[in-house]
Design goal:
single chain, alpha/beta, Rossmann fold, six-stranded mixed β-sheet, 4 helices, 17% strand, globular
């Protein structure tokens, strides 16, 4: 069993997943990337759902962005993105899932990317881990935070 998140809006006629594949891992996500059109999947009841809790900052690490994609898409469809921002940590810029879509929704100022393993700067990107000072600086105007990370090694407290 593996936990995957559905990214599409409730009214969409298809089910959309964002699944980050890790070539070095042997598991469900690697197998899913090898599926052909028309393949069948057996799905069970959902669990561990993340719910929208109001305006604030989304904090994600790696594939942890996936539950927030559906929330951000819903907010964009209703024109309700004001007051939201994102801090998204990854190893490299190439690891950033849906970068263009996130920038489109939130812009450079409200969409902050942290890269832990390579030099990255400019355009809303910086190198480093999510530390207390970065957290405090980015959240001065935000009253709520929602977090999701596959591994917390991109956060340094």
């Amino acid at each position: 069993m593996s936990s995957l998140r559905i990214d599409n809006l409730a009214e969409d006629r298809v089910i959309e997943f964002t699944i980050k594949g890790y070539p070095e891992h042997r598991g469900v996500t690697k197998a899913l990337h090898g599926l052909k059109p028309g393949s069948r999947l057996l799905m069970s009841v959902s669990f561990g759902t993340i719910h929208y809790q109001g305006r604030g900052t989304f904090i994600a690490g790696g594939a942890g962005i996936t539950p927030f994609m559906a929330i951000l898409r819903e907010l964009a469809s209703t024109g309700d993105l004001d007051g939201h921002s994102l801090i998204f940590a990854n190893k490299t810029p190439a690891d950033i899932i849906c970068e263009k879509e996130l920038r489109h929704y939130l812009g450079v100022v409200r969409c902050r990317f942290l890269c832990t393993d390579v030099e990255a700067s400019g355009g809303g990107m910086s190198m480093g881990k999510l530390t207390r000072p970065i957290y405090a600086t980015r959240l001065r105007t935000s009253t709520r935070t929602s977090t999701c990370a596959v591994r917390r090694d991109s956060w340094k407290w």
